[in-house]
Write the structure tokens for this entry.
Amino acid sequence: MTSPAPAEPDSAPVLALEGVSKSFGAVRALQDVSLRLYPGQAHALAGENGAGKSTLIKTLSGVHRPDAGSVLLDGIPVVFHGPGHARDAGVAVIYQEPTLFPDLSVAENIFMGRQPRRSLGRVDHAAVRRATAELFGRLGVDLDPGQPARGLSIADQQLVEIAKALSFDARVLIMDEPTAALTGSEVARLFRIVRTLLESGAAVLFISHRLSEIFELCQQVTTLRDGRLVASEPVAGLTEDDLVRRMVGRELDELYPKQDTETGGVALSVRRLTREGAFTDVSFEVRAGEIVGLAGLVGAGRTEVARAIFGVDRWDAGEVQIAGRPLRPGSPSRAMAAGLALVPEDRRAQGLVLGLSIERNIGLTGLKATSKAGLANRAAERDRALDWAVKLQVKYSRLHDAVATLSGGNQQKVVLAKWLATGPRVLIVDEPTRGIDVGTKAEVHRLLSTLAAEGVAVLMISSDLPEILGMADRVLVMHEGRLTAEIPRAAATEEAVMSAATGRERSVAG
Amino acid sequence: MTMTIGSAPPDLAQPARRRSLIDLVLRVRELAIAAVLILMLGATQLDNGSFLSVQGIKDLLLNAAILVLVATGEAVVVITRNVDLSVGSVLGISAFAAGDFLQGGGNPLLAVLIAVAVGLAFGLLNGLLVSMGQVPALVVTLGTLYIIRGVDSIWVGSREITANALPHSFSAFGYEGASFIPYLVLPAAAVLIAVAYYLRSYRSGRELYALGSSPEAARLAGVPVRKRLLVAYLACGGLAGLAGALYLARFGNVDSGTGTGYELTVVSAVVVGGVAFTGGSGSVYGAALGAVLLTSINSVLPAIGVSSVWELAIDGFLLLAAIAVDRLVALRVARVLRKRAAAARSVGHA
């Protein structure tokens, strides 16, 4: 893998950030960050989750306005009033999940609001299709301009977004983890197109967790950590290890209070589980008292596996056993009865009824236990809620306040309380600390550790690598729907997990 | 992972035949409703030879005209992934406003304009509430449904407009016609064609679809969301107002309860006509066909000797059938997509 020829360094930057800071409440997302994007140059942005990458992109694309510092377009300070404004200035963003209109044709998606017109201001549908076909021709893409966007693969949707960027002559192309959901050949096609754009003088900002891609495509790399600029340097001469060191580099011990535990018998056993189009042939075991981390890139199929085990989705083949007894697929209530609990990824949408009170949210999973003759017993529900709220140190003013009034961290504790109240044998947590502050994060970790010590089998899905390394007894890694590695705690390093997550090596047979 | 740059495999063969089948099912939606309608009318004609006489056809069209008008407006709103439940109340109050004006000796054309203006005013209110507040349109327009009905009741009291208080020329417009085409159908058809053309051929019309298909993507694409929503509700209100004037002409009788519950019929017509409640798809022609289908059942049942008490149940059945078709198509599409993704993946691994 060789880097393409470096861009001429003497040209002026098209788009730049100078000393930009941005805070959200008490959280300082970006502090004094500078970045320069040159025409014809692919610039990588590296950093862990929460390092400030998305805030930086949103500042460049006009979604956020910096608190301090400035955005420079052709060397002149500008203030973008929203994404439309930045787009008109030639800044195009391709998000990880493309934002298309599923019901409309590919051609309409590209030209929405900017369709060529004929007399009386009428949209010239034929011209829209022609222009789209012409764009696809330039990109070497074989898509039918008339087909609806619904049903396109993520890769094809991204190509539509790129065609859209081309259609208004974008000079800056920002790509936020565009390859996360792509297969190898799709990545190759994407890179080929991006190189063509670079040759024609576009500036590209590229974000990827797959370090090898940064080395393959980019000439310059800027690394962020905790909202601060760590380094901005040419890619040539760096190694992947250098980059990882710049990205990580913090004390992990306090945040991850992992106790050593005695492991018991197999609590959860998953054998050759397959759901067509989501994951294939996934087998693993979690023992009582063990925390098993499930790592992988977004879209690798981790959440899908958890949902299938818990019975939210069906599976096409394979078997799941709880404490040696087979679990019938497709029923969350049977899964709960068998001693399984799932703390979902999106707590606001899937984990909580935001408008309901704290006590009733916690009580939801215990209605069977606390109700008599089909009638809910409010006093029993309240006692139970109080019990758990105290155990988990939820900070609230009254138990009958709506959950929506709590902070993200405390909401997450309520979700945990709700599931812990069922006395689970196996607890699956999906991104347990996403978007919550460091203090609460440590509390959640302590709680998981205590649970494991009490003999609960914990399966922890997380995109936060330090969290996985700090908390898990064993790390399972998924890549594109398959399990690619099983790494014991002692051997689990950031590099090892990342290699497996990006499919560079496989340390698990079949 | 090894990559051979510059010689990526040819694009994965699209399962073109399967895709075009799905496209056909989706696109053919209006045709399917038309087919059901024709089958129903044809079967009734076979059973009862006098059903499709000149007067019979004229009656069918007369019955449908007003619903077609309101359903057209409602469809515009539903396409944006919203709903307007206040159309029945708006129809009632604008019908009375026009009638009150005519009773006082007003000009019929001016009366129609008054009805439209009343409708536009309430459309503006709905549009502002929905586009400004972060409240679901279902709740907002349920609120205005009651408010407008309340204002109507206070204003009208126990008064009522009767046909003999209206100018003859105005009432005659409500039932006369040329051969089997009643005059009442003409404004409805004109509005239908104009709205369909607007939705298809103007940027702002296409943006209504974009908005309903994905509000977030629409915002990112720079669609002026509030402005478009306002226009949709204005259109819906204005057409409900116009329908109020036509209602007055056709039935002559208007009181404070006129149009109560009509919104449910309107929404049924729109949904039966294939305008998805999830926004972004369907057409006003579909909604109009849905309206004709629902009102025709009214005439079909007595013609084949079935008691009209069955009408509501049959309407409900059609509604469920329409939604079931949507769901089946969606499931089918999802299944095909999953298979295709899996196929793409296995090729990617090979």
Residues 1-17 of chain B have pLDDT under 50 and may be disordered. The first strand of chain B starts at residue 177 and ends at 178. The beta strands of chain B are 177-178, 181-182. Residues 17-349 of chain B form a domain with the ABC transporter involved in vitamin B12 uptake, BtuC fold (CATH 1.10.3470).
